[in-house]
Amino acid sequence: MTPRLSYLGFHGVFVLPPIVVLGALAARRTGAWWDRTGFSGLGIIAVLAVLYTTPWTNVMIPAGVWWYGEGAVLARLWYTPVEEYLFFVLQPILTAFVLFHVHSRAELSLRLPVSHRLAGLVGGTAVCLAGWTLLENTATYYLGSLLFWAGPILAIQWAFGLTYLWRVRHTVALAVGLPTLYLWIADRIAIEWGIWIISERYTTGYALVGLPIEEALFFLLTNVFVVQGIVLYGWLVDRSHELPSVPLLSRLLERVRRLRPGTRR
């Protein structure tokens, strides 16, 4: 099936325009989080997104969990289209730009109780284990792979700062929810137009207004990674004076903190 739009065209229609609009608005808003802390956090998350997601997609695609419409992609690197790698970077930018509009801070020491960190670690590990059990069934393979893949990241983020994330939960919920809803709509259109096709064999068959729940969960989880990662990075920079003395790390964080314009907090 020849899709109505190429994967690159999908970026041009659905991904790049909101990035441009959100970025332009944030650059003009005094209250937006538009400084070196936010951008350095986004840069770190974008690099990690590429590194962490690449092995996963290159297992899922040859397994037949999803594939692409005829002529929808320009080229592939390994099994993954180059447009997919581009999306690994563009989605964090889109989600981060939403976060920059709604971001807030809370006063909380980095020295959290061990029990709080343990709770976060256990929560993320439970997600991973749930995914592992679902991998055994063909119909839950995509769902299980998502949870198994997401669990380690959630465990790290929650073990580091679940308490802080709870303090700023309204910001996190809004920054995750808005781009997730938008990408659900865009993904539903992309599937309808045949840009990519989701396997019926490896999915549960449950859908959210025509969008497979696995796809809905993918965008929810990835946006959670982005928002939590940048929020926690900002918290770390704010409280860098509490860190043990590691000369190089301390200098880097202090430099980021000092370069942040006070009027754009």
Topology summary:
Elements: H1 7-28, H2 36-63, E1 66-68, E2 76-77, E3 80-81, H3 82-102, H4 114-134, H5 141-167, H6 169-192, E4 196-198, E5 207-208, E6 211-212, H7 213-238, H8 247-259
Antiparallel strand pairs: 1-4, 2-3, 5-6
Task: Provide an overview of this structure.
- This protein has 265 residues and is mainly alpha-helical.
- The protein has one domain.
- Helices cover 69% and strands 5% of the residues.
- The chain is built from eight helices and six strands.
- The protein has helices at 7-28, 36-63, 82-102, 114-134, 141-167, 169-192, 213-238, 247-259; strands at residues 66-68, 76-77, 80-81, 196-198, 207-208, 211-212.
- The chain has a two-stranded antiparallel sheet with strand order 1-4. A two-stranded antiparallel sheet has the order 2-3. It has a two-stranded antiparallel ribbon with strand order 5-6.
- Strand 5 and strand 6 form a beta hairpin.
- Helix 1 (7-28) runs parallel beside helix 3 (82-102), helix 2 (36-63) runs antiparallel to helix 3 and helix 3 (82-102) packs across helix 7.
- The protein is globular.
- 36% of the residues are buried.
- The mean pLDDT is 94.
- Pathway: Carotenoid biosynthesis.
- GO terms for molecular function: intramolecular lyase activity; lycopene beta cyclase activity.
